[in-house]
Design a protein that fits this description.
heterodimer; A: about 280 residues; mainly alpha; 13 helices; about 0% strand; globular; B: about 280 residues; about 75% helix
Chain lengths: ~280, ~280
């Protein structure tokens, strides 16, 4: 009896291993595709990196101008704000595995009845959808410039950031960005019942723009809203504070983990309920 | 090529061809207005984003002001008015940016051939396509701003001179974005892909147009560069004009400078277009 149970256990494990291998193969294929598309437009890739550096410099100019006239921003000095800026542009680690970024086209796919090909694949449809937006080359393109910028600022301003605190802060940021991505995915599922929702969804997520400022500067109610309900505080403020050793690690990691679990459940539940309304003529 | 077609005997004399081209532009303008109705929810949501963005601006600048009454010559109400006005103007200005994508698509897909074969001016058609949504946004923006100015008692100077200056310079700003974006798109005749170059140009707009922060706050070197470029006419000049931050006697000179930039950019576009079209190849079919 025990022997049979053990054999059954191994069979389940082997099956799960096969499912994981399928997912891994899809990801690796998408990663490879992005590199080949990069090699076709080398000049364009370099130019886009320059553009991204300019994009980050926008925020630096803003903080430079603000601290130039006000001295600091609610206790944040220019050196801390410089690190904050670099950190805020780091992409989340989840975007290498599950990048539900292009959610506007998700509602488009629902409305056009183009979801069939994802439903027909031998992996979870939500994974199949998000895997299409996974780009390893893009990830590196958007990861390396802010990382370099952050390291330069840490060295230049002699900021008290250790290797471990930096990694911890980055994991916190990844968790925060993953939660926002799951919220976005959940909101876009409203398209199953309410048609085109990209405008409405964009409106909701404009509040995340508040995350591009240090959230600790805002009133308590707004801080609560951005910390627990629409957790934009986890996209830059808390990770930077953690790196600088100014955040309670157990508390912020606890909140981030709780939010991740909560939104995984909400997202999967919403999918199972709303996807029933999907109709397509096929073909 | 379009010029040759319009001047050809089949299309009649030069004057009616110009009228015809204007009519085509107007048709494209109306068509875009109709299309907006199809996406009503998204359109109104994008307008509703203004209050959301203003909440962000309000809290951020409240921190900057702290206990001060003025920062760099701006009062708290003054800086909020600046951003508010900027947000109202930006949906108008940025509609012109669509031209880069449209023209690039037409060149790369070969669709441009079908336009070149028709007796119409492609430039006017593109302008009409961008101006439709811009007009709609301008109407909605004016209503929003007029209402908010009255309710919130924002510190604007609503003299006829300044209102006329504001309207004219916003129109000029729209044309500057339209022309610069069209120039970038036309480069596709030579370099193929231009979307990153377009994005880079957007960064330049962001730095020097006054959209991130009023140009008075920029470091001295960037202020000098901004003063030389036409990008300050996108937001900084029109908004500062209406807020009364620019002396009245400087306004005509600013409009003349803006006009000179528009003429200069239009000439550059014309030269590039005429040269670029000769390089254009399409399979037809």
């Amino acid at each position: 009896m025990a022997h049979e149970l053990r054999a059954k256990h191994w069979r389940v494990l082997a099956e799960q291993g096969r499912v994981l291998a399928k997912h891994r193969r899809i990801l690796v294929r998408y990663w490879a595709i992005t590199f080949s598309s990069f090699s076709q437009f080398t000049w364009d890739v370099w130019l886009s990196i320059v553009q991204f550096v300019f994009y980050m410099c926008r925020s630096l100019v803003f903080w430079w101008a603000v601290t130039g006239v006000a001295g600091d921003f609610a206790g944040w000095t220019m050196s801390e704000l410089a690190l904050f800026t670099a950190v805020s542009y780091l992409p989340g680690l989840h975007s290498l595995f599950w990048n539900f970024w292009n959610s506007a086209s998700f509602s488009d796919k629902i409305l056009r009845g183009e979801l069939d090909k994802y439903l027909a694949r031998p992996v979870h449809p939500l994974f199949a959808l998000a895997a299409e937006d996974v780009h390893l080359a893009h990830f590196l393109k958007y990861f390396l410039p802010p990382l370099a910028m952050a390291l330069v600022f840490i060295a230049r301003y002699d900021l008290p950031v250790t290797g471990w605190s930096f990694v911890g802060g980055y994991l916190l940021l990844s968790a925060g960005k993953l939660v926002l991505t799951m919220m976005r995915a959940t909101a876009s599922m409203l398209a199953f019942r309410h048609g085109e929702v990209s405008g409405l969804e964009a409106l909701l997520f404009q509040f995340t723009a508040l995350g591009s400022y240090p959230v600790t500067a805002f009133p308590d109610a707004l801080r609560f809203f951005l910390g627990y309900l629409l957790p934009a505080a986890f996209t830059a403020t808390y990770p930077t504070l953690f790196m600088l050793g100014k955040a309670d690690g157990i508390r912020v990691f606890g909140i981030a983990a709780g939010l991740c679990v909560f939104w995984v459940v909400v997202m999967l539940k919403t999918w199972s309920v709303t996807a029933r309304d999907y109709e397509s003529p096929g073909g | 090529m379009t010029r040759e077609l319009s001047a050809s005997p089949a299309c009649g004399p030069r004057r009616p061809a110009l009228v015809k081209n204007l009519f085509v532009g107007l048709c494209a303008f109306r068509l875009q207005l109709r299309r907006l109705r199809e996406y009503a929810l998204s359109f109104w949501s994008s307008l509703a984003s203004i209050p959301v963005l203003m909440v962000v601006t309000y809290f951020a600048w409240r921190v900057v002001f702290g206990g001060r009454t003025t920062v760099n010559g701006y009062t708290f109400a003054g800086i909020l008015s600046y951003y508010f006005l900027m947000r109202v103007v930006s949906p108008v200005i940025w509609q012109a940016g669509a031209v880069a994508w449209n023209v690039w698509q037409d060149i790369n897909s070969g669709n441009l051939a079908s336009y070149l074969a028709r007796p119409l001016d492609y430039n006017l058609l593109s302008l009409g396509k961008c101006a439709g949504p811009a007009f709609c946004n301008m109407v909605a923006g004016t209503i929003t701003y007029a209402g908010a100015t009255f309710v919130l008692r924002l510190p604007v100077v609503l003299t006829p001179t300044r209102v006329a200056f504001f309207a004219t310079s916003v129109l000029g700003g729209f044309l500057i974005v339209y022309l610069t974006q069209f120039i970038v798109a036309v480069l596709a005749f030579w370099i193929g892909r231009t979307d990153t170059l377009r994005d880079l140009l957007y960064e330049m707009y962001a730095f020097f147009s006054g959209s991130i922060i009023p140009n008075d706050f920029l470091p001295p070197l960037l202020q000098q560069v901004a003063g030389f470029l036409p990008l300050r006419f996108l937001f900084y000049v029109p908004v500062s004009g209406l807020l009364g931050r620019l002396p009245t006697d400087e306004l005509p000179g600013l409009l003349l400078t803006e006009f000179a930039w528009i003429v200069g950019l239009a000439l550059v576009l014309r030269i590039l277009w005429r040269r670029g079209v000769t390089r254009f190849e399409a399979q037809g079919g």
